[in-house]
Amino acid sequence: NAEREIESLLAAVNAERDVPVEFRFEAAVCGGIPVIRSMQSDFPGDQVSMLSGIINGCTNFMLTAMDRDGMSYEDALAEASRLGYAEADPTLDVGGFDARSKLRILMRLAFGVEVDEEEISCRGITDLTKLDFEYAKMMGGTIKLIGVATTVGENKVAAYVSPCYVTGSDQLASVNGATNAVEVISSNLVASTYIGQGAGRFPTANSVMNDIVALAKGDTVALPFNPLAKDTKFVNNYDSYFYIRIKYRDQVGITRQCGEICEKHGVSIHSILQNPITRRDDAAFVLITEKVPLSSVMGVCADLEGLDWCRGPTYYMPVLREDWNE
Amino acid sequence: NAEREIESLLAAVNAERDVPVEFRFEAAVCGGIPVIRSMQSDFPGDQVSMLSGIINGCTNFMLTAMDRDGMSYEDALAEASRLGYAEADPTLDVGGFDARSKLRILMRLAFGVEVDEEEISCRGITDLTKLDFEYAKMMGGTIKLIGVATTVGENKVAAYVSPCYVTGSDQLASVNGATNAVEVISSNLVASTYIGQGAGRFPTANSVMNDIVALAKGDTVALPFNPLAKDTKFVNNYDSYFYIRIKYRDQVGITRQCGEICEKHGVSIHSILQNPITRRDDAAFVLITEKVPLSSVMGVCADLEGLDWCRGPTYYMPVLREDWNE
C-alpha cells in the first residue's frame, strides 16, 4: 500500500510546513495508464456512472494463460511469478486485494466517495476452475478479474472485485496478458477506455517523471464542478446477472429443487447450461440468473450447498454488463 | 479544417499582442478522447515508434455495419448520414481526408514532424467490396480504416490513411460503430490505447471545457525532453504485409503469371486465398505478400491490371501489424 505510506509521510511533512506539499500518484494505479490524471482532468465536469477495470496484471496474465493456453492455475501462477508479474506475496494478487486497493483510489476520484477498503466485496481467482472457462467459452466469452464501482440510485455507489463473465465482443475481453484496462462510463464522454501497461520499470518511471514535470510546472489538480459529494454513500450490495456453477451428483429432482430454491429467494433464471454428463457422481451445470441482488444469489448458493446432491461449494460470479446477451 | 482556421485566427490575434495567446485543441481530434493532452503530457520523455488509430467515426460506423450486419456501402453511408456521423460533404469521411487531417496533427505531437497533408498517402473506403470482408473473415479478422504513422529507420517517419486488414484479436478489431481509438507504441509505455467517443455534442463540449479549465489554471504544455526533432523527415513509402485482391476471368496460367510479376518486383508471396469459383468469368482471389515496400505492391498491381484475364482494378491494403499471423 504505497499510497497509504505516502499519505502518512505527507501528513508528517505538512505538519511542519506552512504551505502544504502537493503529491501526485499516477504510478500507484495501473503503472503506465494515465488514469489518475485523466480522472482529475477529463472528468471534472462529467458524471461518472460506472468504472470497471482489469487493474491487476498478474491475475490477468494468469486468466489469459488459463483460458487461451489451457494452463493450470498452478502453472499460470508459477509463470506469472517467473516473469515478475506477481507481488512478493501473490495472495495480494490472486486474492483480489491489490485490485481492491486500486479500486478504492479510483472510486475516490470518480465518485468522491471514501470507502474503507475492507468493506469492498473481494473475490479472487483461486476458486475458478477449468470448467468455468469451458462454460464461459460456450457462452461466447471469457472470465476476467475486474474491479467495478457503479452508481446504484441517488448518491449511492456499490463496488466489488470479482471474476466476471465478459462477452467476447467486450472491449475488456481482448485485454490479455499483464495488460491493464480501465473503462469509464459517464454522461458526457459516454464510454472511455484506457488500455496499457499496468506495471513495469519503464511505464512506472514514465508516470513518475510526468508527475514530477507536472509539479515542477505548477499544474494544479482540477477542482471538479461537482465537488466530491460528501453525501455519497457506499452500499455493499449490487444487482447483476450472475453465473452460478453447481457441482452435483446426478439424481432425479435436481431441476425442481433448483427452481424451488431460486423462487424462494426471488431469483429468476435466465438460462441453464449443462454439458453432457460424463461422470454421474461428479458433474456440473451452470445457472445464469436474471438481474438480481448479490445477497439473493448468496442465499441461493447457501441453500443449494445444503442439499445432498450438491458437491462442495457452489461458485458464483457477476456477468459484467446488462447488455451481455444482445 | 478547424485547426487551420484557429491557427490563422491566432496568428492575427498574436500579431497585435505582446504576450502570445496559448491555444488548446483537444476537441479537434477524436472529440472525447484525451489523446492530444496525453501526447503532450504522457509522452514528453518517451519515444513514440508507431501511432495507429481509427480516427474517423463515420467510416468506422460504415465498416462495422458492412462487416457485422452485411449492409451495402450505400445503405451504410445513408445510415451514417441519418445518424449525423457523416460530414456535410461525406467525401471527407469516405475518402479518408478527415482522418488524414487528424493524422497530421497527431504526427506533429508524436514525432515532432510537420507534414504537408497532401503528401500523406490517402485511400478511403470507397473501393472496398463485400468480397473483401469475406476474405478478411476467412483470415480471422476484419477491415478498419486506419491512420498510421510509424518510424522507418533513423529520423524518418512514414504515414498513410488506408483500409487495413486487422486480426480478430487486435485491440482495434473490436472498436465498433462510431467509436474512435488511438494506439501509441513507445519505448517506455510499450503500448497505450485510448478508446472513446470520436465526436458528438457532449464529448466535444467536455473536451473544450477541460481545455478552458487548463488554460484558466495556467497549466502549460510540457516541453518534451526530446524536443521536436527538426531533422525528422517524412517519407512517402513504407513496408508492410499487403492484401491484394484480384478479380479475374478463369483460365490456365494465372498462378504462373502472378508468380512472375511478383518475382519481377521482388515481392514474396505469403499466402494465396481463393474461394471456390462460382462464376468462371467473374472470380476473385487474394494474395497476401510478405513484408514489402508499398511501391513494389503498386508495381505488381499495375502489371496485373495489364493482363487479359484481370478484370478491372486490383485492390490492395496493408495488413496492420507484423505479428498479424502469430
Report on the architecture of this protein:
2 copies of one chain form a homodimer. By secondary structure, chain A is of the alpha+beta class. In chain A, 34% of the residues lie in helices and 24% in strands. The model of chain A has no long low-confidence stretch (mean pLDDT 87). The interface between A and B is large, with 44 and 44 residues. Strand 6 of chain A pairs antiparallel with strand 6 of chain B, so a sheet runs across the interface. Chains A, B: InterPro entries: ACT-like_dom_sf, HDH_cat, HDH_CS. Chains A, B: Keywords: Amino-acid biosynthesis, Methionine biosynthesis, NADP, Oxidoreductase, Threonine biosynthesis.
Write the layout of secondary structure elements.
The structure is a homodimer of 326-residue chains.
Chain A: H1 2-15, H2 35-41, E1 48-54, H3 57-68, H4 73-82, H5 91-94, H6 97-111, E2 121-122, H7 130-138, E3 141-151, E4 156-167, E5 179-186, E6 190-197, H8 201-217, E7 233-235, E8 239-240, E9 242-248, H9 254-264, E10 269-274, E11 283-289, E12 292-293, H10 294-305, E13 315-318
Parallel strand pairs in A: 2-4, 4-7
Antiparallel strand pairs in A: 1-3, 1-5, 3-4, 5-6, 8-12, 9-11, 9-13, 10-11
Structural descriptors:
homodimer, 326 residues, alpha+beta, Dihydrodipicolinate Reductase, domain 2, Alpha-Beta Plaits, 7-stranded mixed sheet, 4-stranded antiparallel sheet, 24% strand
What share of the residues of chain A lie within helices?
Answer: 25-40%
Q: Assembly type of the shown chains? A: homodimer
CATH topology-level name of the largest domain in chain A: Dihydrodipicolinate Reductase, domain 2
**Molecular shape of chain A:** globular
Protein name (chains A, B): Homoserine dehydrogenase
Catalytic activity (chains A, B): L-homoserine + NADP(+) = L-aspartate 4-semialdehyde + NADPH + H(+)
Pathway (chains A, B): Amino-acid biosynthesis; L-threonine biosynthesis; L-threonine from L-aspartate: step 3/5; Amino-acid biosynthesis; L-methionine biosynthesis via de novo pathway; L-homoserine from L-aspartate: step 3/3
EC number (chains A, B): 1.1.1.3
